[in-house]
Amino acid sequence: MNILVTGGAGYIGSHICRALLASGYAVHALDNLSSGHAEVAVGTLHTVDLGDVVGLRNIFAEYHIDAVVHCAGLINVADSMQHPEVYRTVNIEYTKSLLEEMARANVRDFVFSSSCAVYGTPQHLPVDEATPFHPESVYAETKVAAEEIIRNSAEMYGMRYAILRYFNACGAAANGSAGEWHDPETHLIPNVIRAAMSQQPVMIFGNDYPTSDGTCVRDYVHVEDLADAHVKALQYIDSHVEPLILNLGSGHGYSNAEIVAAVETELKTKIVVQYGPRRVGDPACIEASNEKARMLLGWQPRHDLASIIRTAVEWEIKNKIASLRSQ
Q1: Domain with CATH 3.90.25.10 in the chain
Q2: In terms of CB atoms within 10 Å, which of 55, 66, 79, 109 comes out highest?
Q3: Domain 2-169+220-248, CATH
Q4: What kind of architecture, by CATH, is found in domain 188-218+251-326?
Q5: Is the pTM of this model over 0.70?
Q6: How confident is the model over 218-234, as pLDDT tens digits?
Q7: Per-residue DSSP letters for 138-192?
C-alpha cells in the first residue's frame, strides 16, 4: 500500500513514516520544509505545500495513494493567538482541500493528528474520549473544526477515518535518526536538556499549582509509541466501517519538577530552575485515559519516563556534536 504522510519531515510525521516503512508500507512524505527537515525524512519526500492543490492532485494521480496520514499543520499555541487567520487557513481550510482531493482520487482511508488541546482545562481526570470539548486557544479551535470537517467529509464521501488526540509527544528514535527539532523550541523536555547541557537556567512557568510540588503535571508519551499507534489505527480502519477516535497518552502524569529531576539523573548534573508566572490557559494537571486505544488497537506505550529522557538526551547530544562539526 502507498501511504501519504503530510508533514512527513516533521517531528511526529517522520517517526510515523519510519514505523510505516518498518511495517512494509510504501511511504510518501509531503512537507513544504517550513518547519520540517529533509534530513529526517524517509521514504519518498515530496516538497509540496499542503495548500498546493495541483501538487496534491499530481501526487495522488502518479503514485496511486491508498491512504493518508495527516500530520501537517501549525502547532504553536501562543503563535495561534497572534496569527489566528493563518492557523485557520492551514489547519482547517487545507485539511478540507486535502479531503476533497482524496475524494477526487477515490482515496478512502484517513488518519488525523489531533490534540488533547481540544479538551481545554479538564473537569475530571483521567481525560477520556467522551470529555466535552473546551478549546482555549485558536490552535485548539482549529483542531475541533478539523475534526468536524473530517466527520462531515466521511459521511459525504464514504471515507473511513481515525482521529488520534495526542497528549505530550516527546523522546526520540532509539537509533538516533530523528528527534525534536523545532525553531524556536517550546517543549519542556528538550529545553530542560539544553539548559543542563549548557549549564544555563531553565524557565518553569508557575510553581503554585495545586499539585504535589506546585508545578504543572502533564502526560508524556514517546513519539515512537505514537507512531506505532498510527500504524495500528491505519490497519484498524482498513477492516472496520466505524470511525476510530482515540486518546494517545501514557495514562500517567509527571510534573515539571519531576521532568527536571529525571534529566538531572540522566545527565548527572544539577539544573538551575527559574520560576515565572503561570501562563494563561495552562491547567494544573492533564492525564489521559488510554483504555480505548488499549482495547481496540491492542496499543500499549512501551517507553517509560527514563526511556523518554534517555532517547531525548542522546538526540540532543548528537545534534550538538553535529552543530559543532559544521561550524
Answers
A1: 188-218+251-326
A2: 109
A3: 3.40.50.720
A4: Alpha-Beta Complex (3.90)
A5: yes
A6: 999 999 999 999 999 99
A7: HHHHHHHHHHHHHHHHHHHHT-EEEEEEE-EEE---TTSS-----SS---HHHHH
